[in-house]
Design goal:
Length: 224
C-alpha cells in the first residue's frame, strides 16, 4: 500500500560525486559521500513519490524502492538525467566535477623519472542549469544545492539566479563544520520568497523537511 502526498509524482534526484577519468586507473572527483542525496531520495519515496535516482560512485549504497541509474562522469549524468525526464520535480544534490581532463589517455600514464604529466581541462556541462533553463518540459520545481566554504548565503543567492533553479539548498562545507561525510547538515533554503536558515539537524531530517516542502509546492495549484 503506497500512500502519501507525493503519490503519482515522479521526482528525479542526482547524488554522489562524478569521476572524470585521467587514464584507466586515475580520475579527478569532488568529495561527496552521497549521504544527503540518498536521504532525500528516501524521504521522497516515503511520501509516495516515484523516484529516479541518478548517482555517481558514492560511499553510501543507493536506497531500496527507487529506480537507480548509476553513472560515472558528468556527461553520463547529464544523459541519464535527460533520459529520466519528464519529472514533476528535480533535486540536484550531486557534486558534479566542474572540469574533465581534455584528452583521457587510453592507457595508463607511465611514471617517468624527471618528467611530470601535465593535464589540461575542459568544462563539463552544467546539468542543473541545463534543466532549469529548459524551454519545454521543465520540471515544475527545480532544486539545486550549493556547497560553499565562505559567504554562503551571498554565493548561493547569486547561484540561484545564475542557474535559473527555483530553490537552492545551501550549506557550509568548510572542514571545521564536519558536514562533509558527516551525518549532520546545517542548511539555508533560498527561494524567491527569501532566505530560510534551518537549524543544524541530521541529514535524514533535512531530507524529510525538504521532501515535505516539495510536496507542499507540488500540491499548490499552478504555483511555480
Ligand atoms: O556551480 P556549482 O557546482 O557550485 O552548483 C552546485 C549545484 O549545481 C548542485 O545542485 C549540483 O548538483 C549542480 N551541478 C550540476 N552540474 C554541474 C555542476 C553542478 O548539476 N556540472
Amino acid at each position: 500500500l503506497i500512500e502519501g502526498p507525493l503519490v503519482g509524482k515522479h521526482i528525479l534526484v542526482t547524488s554522489g560525486p562524478t569521476h572524470e577519468p585521467i587514464d584507466p586507473v586515475r580520475y579527478i572527483a569532488n568529495r561527496s559521500s552521497g549521504a544527503q542525496g540518498t536521504a532525500i531520495a528516501v524521504a521522497l519515496r516515503d511520501l509516495g513519490a516515484q523516484v529516479s535516482f541518478v548517482t555517481g560512485p558514492a560511499d553510501v549504497p543507493p536506497p531500496q524502492g527507487v529506480t537507480v541509474i548509476r553513472v560515472e562522469t558528468a556527461r553520463e549524468m547529464k544523459a541519464a538525467v535527460e533520459a529520466a525526464l519528464p519529472a514533476d520535480a528535480a533535486v540536484f544534490a550531486a557534486a558534479v566535477a566542474d572540469w574533465r581532463v581534455s584528452s583521457e589517455s587510453g592507457s595508463k600514464i607511465k611514471k617517468e623519472k624527471g618528467t611530470l604529466p601535465s593535464l589540461s581541462f575542459t568544462e563539463n556541462p552544467d546539468i542543473l542549469a541545463t534543466v532549469s533553463q529548459m524551454s519545454t518540459g521543465r520540471p515544475r520545481l527545480v532544486v539545486g544545492f550549493a556547497a560553499e566554504t565562505d559567504n554562503v548565503v551571498a554565493h548561493a543567492t547569486a547561484k540561484r539566479l545564475r542557474k535559473g533553479c527555483d530553490w537552492i539548498v545551501a550549506n557550509d562545507v568548510s572542514p571545521a563544520t564536519g558536514i562533509m561525510g558527516g551525518t549532520e547538515n546545517a542548511v539555508v533554503l533560498i527561494s524567491d520568497a527569501g532566505t530560510d536558515v534551518w537549524p543544524r539537524m541530521s541529514k535524514a531530517e533535512v531530507a524529510r523537511q525538504l521532501a515535505h516542502k516539495i510536496a507542499d509546492r507540488l500540491s499548490a495549484a499552478f504555483a511555480v
